[in-house]
Specification:
The protein has helices at residues 11-14, 74-83, 98-106, 109-139, 141-153, 158-195, 212-238, 242-249, and strands spanning 5-9, 20-23, 26-35, 48-49. The radius of gyration is 33 Å and the shape is elongated. It is of the alpha+beta class and 250 residues long. It is built from 8 helices and 4 strands. It has a 4-stranded mixed β-sheet.
């Protein structure tokens, strides 16, 4: 008889005795060479993966082909598939691009609602950060201005005044940036299993990645806030006359 074909099966299917594959009215005995917990894109717990090259006698044409590459052209793949299709078999050619599927999923109502909620949350967080910085500057603006003006009478230059303001603002803003960034990195890892995201990916694990572009945007926003705060505070302090400060000090 024919030697059993080594296959990969699920745990449930591997316990079934006498596994066989029926193709084109031919039966082939199977031998479980290994097991797999899940098959990506397949949500059933009973499956058997048979290598096509183990069935040379059938001369089966391929029914599916995966093409990977940044420059893959769906139209060119479709034309090549139609050109090399067997002339004696009418095989419909369907080309589906991963980018098109992803774009369709991103345009769903559920994803739009989630994106809107996150966008509103980010906007609210940025607004709250701006208000917090503004309040921190306003509360101590008078005392800070008098202190800097008194230091100006002792020879403090404009650059030194800006550096002093920068040193004062940096700890507060750096603490907020580090705490918010750490929370943003840790939260997806803590919530990914709780949210059950694998239900949307047919059991395929959903990896969490670090978005360098978002981190760069956050760092740029931080720099803009710091520079804006320093320049605003320095411009306000220049309006405070030294004579007025000296009179207040007396």
């Amino acid at each position: 008889g024919t030697a059993p074909i080594p296959v990969i099966a699920s745990a449930v299917a591997s316990r079934q005795p006498g596994l066989t594959a029926a193709l084109d009215q031919q039966f082939f005995p199977l031998r479980v060479a290994g097991t797999a917990a899940r098959l990506p894109g397949f949500d059933r717990d009973e499956f058997v993966m048979v290598p096509r090259q183990a069935l040379p006698a059938l001369n089966l044409p391929p029914t599916g082909l995966l093409v990977a590459g940044a420059g893959a052209d769906p139209a060119a793949v479709r034309a090549a598939a139609q050109l090399h299709a067997p002339p004696d078999r009418a095989i419909p050619v369907e080309v589906v691009a991963r980018a098109a599927i992803r774009s369709k999923l991103e345009r769903s109502a559920f994803n739009d609602g989630i994106s809107l909620a996150f966008t509103a949350g980010i906007a609210a967080a940025v607004l709250a950060g701006l208000l917090g910085i503004a309040l921190a500057l306003v509360v101590d603006a008078g005392a800070r201005g008098r202190a800097l003006s008194l230091l100006r009478t002792m020879g403090l230059g404009p650059r030194q005044a800006r550096r002093l303001l920068l040193i004062e603002l940096m700890p507060l803003m750096a603490t907020a940036l580090v705490a918010g960034g750490a929370l943003g990195v840790v939260m997806p890892r803590l919530l990914s299993s709780t949210l059950g995201l694998t239900e949307f990916t047919a059991g395929t694990p959903v990896p969490t990645t670090f978005d360098g572009a978002a981190a760069g945007l956050l760092a740029g926003l931080f720099a803009v806030l710091v520079v804006g705060g320093v320049l605003t505070e320095a411009a306000t302090n220049r309006r405070l006359g030294l004579g007025q400060v000296l009179r207040v000090g007396n």
